[in-house]
């Protein structure tokens, strides 16, 4: 099976390469090899490679900057996805597209099912929602949209690596306590995505690790587990603050827990609790 991977240099792209099944002929492209904002380059790549699947992990993910770089965010998150769907409709290929909890308003108090109404609060969320809509219109029967949330892993900038750096540099941290979601390790997500491809799963699905947390809970766990593994030398106070005390250009969902039950059932997956996944990731980091 020939698979084209976009966003190969990103943290999820790296995990997908590490966990690639032996039967997969993987063509992994980073931004320099395949620029998602270049429509002509994208069309040519699909026509020449003619992949059985495209895994689209490439995205404009700088959430706050997207508020001022609307055109670029739209080109990568919406227009490029439309182009992929159009070209795969011609070649007969399938599309696995990674989407986000940011397509929702975050105003629920129970997990979002895949069929929940999209109500993005930010430019980033709106452009990702537009990409989803393009797939639904252009490639409805040969596509798999997987929404995920709070992704972290080796080889990328994310909440875990940022917290480890700040915990080593500062004598005190403040972290938001009133935004709730599920931390998701790239390795567990990547393994699930390969399973989904093997089973030719289609439709819209959700995939995260198990459990829920606030950013504050996540930060406390990072410090505790990093101290156990010698990644930090000493503990510092971590103070919980409301999100109103940490204003950002983009509005973030206050509640973004995703209901992954259908996806887990479809691929026979028993997800790790997020704290157990975090422990595994930090063990990897400590032994690398």
From TrEMBL:
Protein name: dTDP-4-dehydrorhamnose reductase
Pathway: Carbohydrate biosynthesis; dTDP-L-rhamnose biosynthesis
Entry EC number(s): 1.1.1.133
Family annotation (Pfam families): RmlD_sub_bind (PF04321)
Gene3D superfamilies for this protein: NAD(P)-binding Rossmann-like Domain, UDP-galactose 4-epimerase, domain 1
Family the UniProt entry places it in: Belongs to the dTDP-4-dehydrorhamnose reductase family.
Enzymatic class: oxidoreductase
GO molecular function, one term: dTDP-4-dehydrorhamnose reductase activity
Summary of the function given for this chain in its UniProt record: Catalyzes the reduction of dTDP-6-deoxy-L-lyxo-4-hexulose to yield dTDP-L-rhamnose.
Claim: NADP is one of the keywords in the record: yes
Keyword tags: NADP, Oxidoreductase
PANTHER family named among the record's database cross-references: DTDP-4-DEHYDRORHAMNOSE REDUCTASE, METHIONINE ADENOSYLTRANSFERASE 2 SUBUNIT BETA
Domain RmlD-like substrate binding: from-to ranges: 1-285
Statement: the UniProt record of this protein carries the keyword Oxidoreductase: yes
């Amino acid at each position: 099976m020939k698979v084209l991977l976009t966003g190969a240099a990103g943290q999820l792209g790296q995990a997908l390469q590490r966990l690639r099944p032996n039967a997969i002929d993987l063509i992994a492209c980073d931004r320099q090899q395949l620029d998602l904002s270049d429509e002509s380059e994208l069309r040519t790549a699909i026509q020449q490679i003619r992949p059985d699947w495209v895994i689209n992990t490439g995205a404009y993910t700088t959430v706050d900057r997207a508020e001022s770089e609307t055109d670029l965010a739209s080109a990568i998150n919406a227009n490029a996805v439309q182009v992929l769907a159009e070209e795969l409709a011609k070649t007969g290929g399938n599309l696995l597209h990674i989407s986000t909890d940011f397509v929702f308003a975050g105003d629920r108090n129970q997990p979002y099912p895949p069929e929940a109404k999209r109500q993005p609060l930010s430019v980033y969320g709106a452009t990702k929602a537009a990409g989803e809509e393009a797939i639904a219109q252009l490639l409805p029967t040969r596509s798999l949209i997987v929404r995920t949330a709070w992704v972290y892993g080796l080889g990328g900038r994310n909440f875990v690596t940022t917290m480890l750096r700040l915990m080593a540099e500062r004598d005190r941290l403040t972290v938001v306590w009133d935004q709730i979601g599920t931390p998701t390790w790239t390795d567990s997500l990547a393994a699930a995505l390969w399973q989904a491809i093997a089973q030719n799963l289609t439709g819209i699905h959700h995939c995260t690790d198990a459990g829920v947390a606030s950013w504050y809970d996540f930060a406390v766990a990072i410090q505790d587990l990093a101290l156990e593994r010698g990644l930090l030398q000493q503990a510092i106070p971590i103070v919980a603050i409301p999100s109103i005390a940490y204003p950002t250009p983009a509005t973030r969902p206050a509640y973004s827990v995703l209901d992954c039950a259908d996806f887990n059932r479809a691929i026979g997956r028993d997800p790790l609790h997020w704290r157990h996944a975090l422990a595994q990731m930090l063990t990897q980091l400590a032994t690398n």
